[in-house]
Amino acid sequence: MDDRDLLLYLRDFGFADVDVSARAAARRPTGPPRGDPLAADDVVVMAERLADCRRCRLCQGRTHVVFGVGDPKARVVFIGEAPGAEEDRLGEPFVGRAGQLLNEMLRAIRLRRGQVYIANVLKCRPPGNRDPQDDETAACLPFLRRQIELISPAVIVTLGRVAARHLLGTTAPISSYRGRWTTWQGTPVLPTFHPAYLLRNPAAKAQAWADLKQLARKLDG
Fold first, then answer.
1. 1/137: higher pLDDT
2. Which pTM value belongs to this model?
């Protein structure tokens, strides 16, 4: 129960001199804004500054801003599409079934979740897990780009067509370019399938495994 709820509760019991509006106003922050997330010099501060983001309509239905998780100086950044229901509930990306599969994929190439960094194009869950809309990605992409700049990874892995589209600018079917190295601002990028797609299409796991082996070779090289 916060202060306002307590005051309302007391008023219900006859404490008529309780001034709810005055006490609430007194608790409103009067200091300067928390700061521009894009001006943050590390991902922890950036996450704090984005925790109550209101820059697009998705703030209206979210539970948490799902910023990212992992080593802030990771050698590999994995980028997905957007949070799902479990991610929105817990505030962490890739914690549902797709996240469990991603963890297995990492273990297959001798990586742990805590050794990499995992983020999404969108920081808030779209209704019904629909595809991100252009204005939503326009609001979120500057923060993803800044995340990548701050982490400065050796390699980026895009998971699925949506991540590749918005980071690399391609609208081609992902089957036509997955497993082919490209770059983003000088950083090597490996597009591959999203783990959620692999759950729906287990036959594609062989191709994803080939991509993972490429990633392992790049990191060992």
1. 137
2. 0.84
Distance CA 102, CA 159 (A): 10
Joined tokens for residue 185: 């601002």
Q: Which residues contact 206 (CB under 8 A, 6 or more apart)?
A: none
Joined together, the tokens standing for residue 205 give 């796991």
Which token pair is 136?
């939503």
DSSP one-letter string for 129-169: GPPPPHHHHHHHHHHHHHHHHHH--SEEEEESHHHHHHHH-
Which residue in this structure is represented by tokens 């897990």? 129
Q: Which fold has domain 42-220?
A: Uracil-DNA Glycosylase, subunit E (3.40.470)
Q: How far apart are CA 115 and CA 112, in angstroms?
A: 5
Question: How does strand 76-80 pair with strand 187-192?
Answer: unpaired
Q: What is the pLDDT of residues 6-22, one digit of tens each?
A: 444 444 445 445 443 43
Q: Does residue 214 surpass a pLDDT of 90?
A: yes
Which residue bears the tokens 């490996």? Answer: 190
192, β-bridge pairs: 159
Dig out the tokens for 34 from the structure.
């928390």
Beta-carbon neighbour count of residue 195 at 10 Å? 24
Among 69, 101, 66, smallest CA distance to 198 is for 101
Q: What is the mean pLDDT of residues 153-172?
A: 97
Distance from the Cα of residue 126 to its chain's centroid: 12
| Domain definitions of the chain by residue range | 1-31, 42-220
